[in-house]
Automatic annotation (TrEMBL):
Keyword Kinase: yes
E.C. numbers: 2.7.11.19
Alphabetical keyword list: Kinase, Transferase
PROSITE patterns in alphabetical order: PROTEIN_KINASE_DOM, PROTEIN_KINASE_ST
A single Gene Ontology CC term: cytoplasm
Recorded GO MF terms: ATP binding; phosphorylase kinase activity
Organism whose genome encodes this protein: Ichthyophthirius multifiliis
This protein's name: Protein kinase domain protein
């Protein structure tokens, strides 16, 4: 992805480049490429990246996208960790909205849930919700943008493009453990990924973290989530594993954590699983 400047307006845009030869070499490459265009043109929502234009040269295609200046959620988490180690970072005013606070988590989660509600209405599964794919639109406020629809698909089609896909550590159980060649799943898969992301925002640690990719995949497959707090541990574990019992984006939007939390300056303690009530996290998972 490159940053470009429009000469006559002096506006900046992001340009994502697709090399034609690489598309041809990939399995179902052109099908995936045109599918991504169709999906992005279908998604018109303030917290979803907009495809402004598509250009073509002899060797490449170019997606023209809005510039998101605030970095990714992964960048914000890494920046927050630096602040926790060196408090002097807080003097950098330009980065104040990149510090992970409860206000940040609540507002960003609300926006992500609104975006997932929109995708659900369109029958679209993103299938790769993770910190890297959530950007801040600018540095001055908390407005997120979901990007990268390369693995996305419509739910109601005969056969999914790329049946088993996603990023290890964020893949829903119904996808990563699927055995049927033509198995089906729904937009609820994105709620599991969002729950993993919420856990990461709250604890600064991945929910499934292995020493290598294989170990992370194995932990993700087992989905053995050990919540230490009694209020969380005693809840039905099928609410995590079974997509039919998993909370919906509409239900999550109305959850008390999203609707009723007032203390914007509250900081998550080092061991939040034992010190604060994170029941909402379990439900979103």
């Amino acid at each position: 992805v490159y940053l470009v400047k429009q000469q006559f307006s002096n506006r900046f845009f992001a340009v994502k480049i697709f090399i034609k030869q690489k598309i041809q070499e990939e399995d179902q490459g052109y099908e995936a490429f045109y599918n991504e265009i169709l999906l992005m043109k279908t998604c018109k929502q303030k917290n979803i990246i907009q495809l402004l234009e598509v250009w073509e040269s002899n060797s490449s295609y170019y997606f023209v996208l809005p510039q998101c200046q605030g970095g990714s959620l992964l960048d914000c988490i890494q920046y927050t960790k630096k602040i926790e180690k060196n408090f002097s970072y807080k003097n950098e005013k330009t980065h104040q909205n990149q510090i992970i606070t409860q206000k940040f988590i609540k507002q960003s989660m609300k926006q992500m849930l609104e975006a997932l509600c929109h995708l659900k209405k369109q029958g679209i599964m993103h299938r790769d919700i993770k910190p890297d794919n959530i950007l801040l639109q600018n540095q001055n406020d908390i407005n997120i943008c979901i990007i990268d629809f390369g693995l996305s698909t419509f739910q109601n089609i005969d056969k999914f493009l790329y049946q088993k896909c996603g990023t290890p550590g964020y893949v829903a159980p119904e996808i990563i453990n699927m055995k049927e060649k033509d198995g089906k799943y729904t937009t609820q898969c994105d709620l599991f990924s969002l729950g993993c992301l919420l856990y990461f925002l709250l604890t600064k640690k991945p929910l499934f973290q292995g020493k290598n990719t294989k170990e992370t995949v194995d932990l993700n497959k087992k989905c053995d989530v050990n919540f230490f707090q009694p209020e969380i541990r005693n809840q039905d574990p099928l609410g995590i594993i079974d997509p039919n019992k998993r909370i919906t984006p509409e239900e999550a939007l109305n959850h008390e954590y999203i609707q009723g939390f007032q203390d914007d300056d509250f900081q998550v303690p080092d061991d939040p699983l034992t010190k604060i009530n994170l029941t909402c996290r379990d439900q979103i998972l």
